[in-house]
Amino acid sequence: MYKLLSILLFAYGLALTTDEIYDNSWALIIGINKYENVQKLDFAADDAIAMKEILIESFNFPEENVTMLLNQEATKDNIVKEFSNIAFKAQERDRVLVFFAGHGETMELPEGGQMGYLIPVNGDADNLYYSSIAMDELKRLALMSKAKHMLYLVDACYGGIAAVGSRGLSKNTPNYIDKIISGKSRQIITAGGKGEQVIEKSEWGHSAFTLNLKRGLKDKRADLNSDGYITANELGMFLSEKVTIDSDNQQTPQYGRMTSQEGEFVFVYSEDTIITQVKDSTPRDEQLDFILKELKQLKSQQSSNESNSRQPVKELDNKMPKIGQSYQYWQRERGVGFITSPTMTMLELYNIVNDHLEYSLQYNHSRNKIFSSLISNTHSNEMHQPQLSIIYSRVLKERYRILLGGGLGFAKVIWTDSSLNLEDSFSYFKTSLIGGVGVKLIKIAKPISTQLGFKILVELTDQPAYELDQSGKTIFDHELKIDPKFIFLISFPK
Predict the structure, then answer these.
(1) What is the SS3 assignment for 456?
(2) What residue numbers bound the domain in which 423 lies?
């Protein structure tokens, strides 16, 4: 009955949630910077923390089902023990994900072939068999588990992954939907092959592999056919291309199946769970294969050109990680900002257009007494002011954003003089220079995806200075005013 229901849901493009595919989700997350016997790494632990956050916030992994081992915790015994616990807890309709960020090594076998090893915190590259974890051992544990789908994401370079195939099923395959959802699978994606090095950069704060995992999963870029979900094969195709580009061809991710089973590990978004069957006269898998083939040919041709012709491409590649960093907290998004007090109310509607540009519509209402060298303290005013602001921004360390821009507004002022019992009004156009900083605080995944933060702005504005007498008002020259603002933000990703 469940299989029939799943087929009908896919076929007719109805909503299908994670709970309808899996009963439960399990994960083992491992990140090792501080190795005892081999070269230390800079960002492996950060990679692991980022992966845990993605699984919990975006893909319905219960936090209590996610086990994380960092640095000294990630011994060989602990890794095998925790993976065994998860593998045997998982039931027939569960999924299991294992993420490892650290060193990998390859042993050449005397009879030919290779054996891949993951090196724990106390591992020794000169004594792999006793000190490290053979992928064959993890494969045996995977085969002993009842779990429907299992995926290894290995942010390490080594050979001997023993994958039996790296192509996904075509959407024209008979019973495709039934196989991808209900069929078992044991799949693996590694950061690179034998002899390659994991590339880390301080400007990324991650390895090239995890950086693109974040882009592919959190930003939905790995949904290659735009059907609302990401399969392990789609993720492997995405990473193979993007990591190769970002690493300047120094590492190329490998992906495939550890068994001949034809199921697929599936990522379904917590906030966007609609999975729709793609209908196209040309199968999307064939289109993607063609595009990737053309890209590889173009890449090969450019590599053979003179270094000066390659320079613009390299410059673009170098910028891509920086752009990607902004997506963690400052996505293309829209939201509202507001502040209220006894004397002032402000409402802002803002829209982040791209990585550096945003615009906002503001409405300010203020009521206060005027204290100025030019004006009596018996004067007070009420001001209504709509304003359009255009802001250039730069992201710093993902959570913070430097803001610089300008605004144009229209103000209507109603003033009174209590001593003279006078009331009048006037209007004027207002220009301003804007500078400040934005800070993102927390993310809220349910019931809808939102982010909370604030902006601190300082506006340098011109405004008329005026005084009142019994004959009416006199407008003096404009004077400059520094206007600080604290704006509370609620944002919604597009």
Answers:
(1) strand
(2) 333-493
